[in-house]
Amino acid sequence: MKKTLIYAHRGASKLAPENTMPAYQLASESGADGIEIDVQLTKDRIPVLIHDENVRRTTNGTGFVQEYTLDYIKKLDAGSWFSTKFSDCSIVTLEEFLCWFKFKPMVLNVELKTNVIEYKEIENIVYEALAKHRMLNRTVISSFNLNSITRMHEINPNVQTAFLTSTKRQNLAKFAKENGSTSLHVKYRLLDKKLLKNCRRNDMSLRVYTINRPSYMEKCFNLGCDGIFTDVPHEAVEYRKKFQKVSEQL
Ligand code: G3P
Ligand code: CA
209 C-alpha to center of ligand 1: Å? Predict the structure, then answer.
């Protein structure tokens, strides 16, 4: 059976503040196969890695990312909310991340956070950054917003894309494929044999979020999902080793 890849969700986000360099560094040290990052645009249209549209939850600031220039965004403390140990963390730009990540033997998932704010040109901006760093062949670009997927597919039909969803619908795999998606990224509760079979029938990969419990990991590994997103990549890597050993003995 094909190995289920482990993506560190926002980095190793249980151990360090999400989407910061320590979280990414710990993810790389955990033995995870990949990292998932969230992208929003600043007022001066610089892609930055932060999950929420508003900086309130994960920094010492308030207001929307799109209201501030990168210069201002960079001055925010993006670590103290998690622990004072991380008070020197700032919001990371996509450029800074790629300069570091491109030397790591890992795969990447870039989530375009366009489901609340449809940042103009974000697809082109992110595509150009990935192309510049020669990352397109090991990156899947995902979004809850199907328009982003379709736009990315139009920019380059060979790019790997994933429609993200937590909503059940008939013929989900076929629907995503028809809109330019090469993979599906689904919430765990949507996962079943039938969905996986439909993905296979449509030649699509299936990855599942957010998988932190061993019992959920086991189901994903057992079914042979292509990937999982987890806040605890170090635990998932250990669990996958144990799971593989047991499967070999059967
Ligand atoms: O890409 C999987 C997952 O990250 C999607 O949900 O809210 O954690 O970005 P969220
Ligand atoms: Ca995400």
Answer: 7
Q: Which of 210, 231, 232 to mutate to test the pocket of ligand 1 (most atoms within 8 A of CB)?
A: 210
Dihedral, CA atoms, 195, 4, 180, 101, nearest 10 degrees?
150
What is the distance between the alpha carbons of residues 234 and 95, in angstroms, rounded to a whole number? 26
For 170-198, the pLDDT digits (tens) are 999 999 999 999 999 999 999 999 999 99
Q: Are 204 and 226 in contact (CB under 8 A)?
A: no
What is the rounded distance in angstroms from the CA atom of residue 152 to the CA atom of residue 180? 8
In words, the CATH class of domain 5-249 is alpha beta
Q: Residue 50 contacts by C-beta under 8 Å, 6 or more apart in sequence?
A: 19, 38, 40, 58, 65, 78, 91
CA 210–ligand 2 middle distance (angstroms): 9
What is the distance between the alpha carbons of residues 93 and 140, in angstroms, rounded to a whole number? 18
Mutate to test the pocket of ligand 1, among 13, 51, 187 (most ligand atoms within 8 A of CB): 51
What percent helix, strand, coil does the chain show, rounded to 5? 40, 20, 40
Residue 201 burial (10 A CB sphere; 0-12, 13-18, 19+): exposed
The predicted pLDDT at position 49 comes to 99
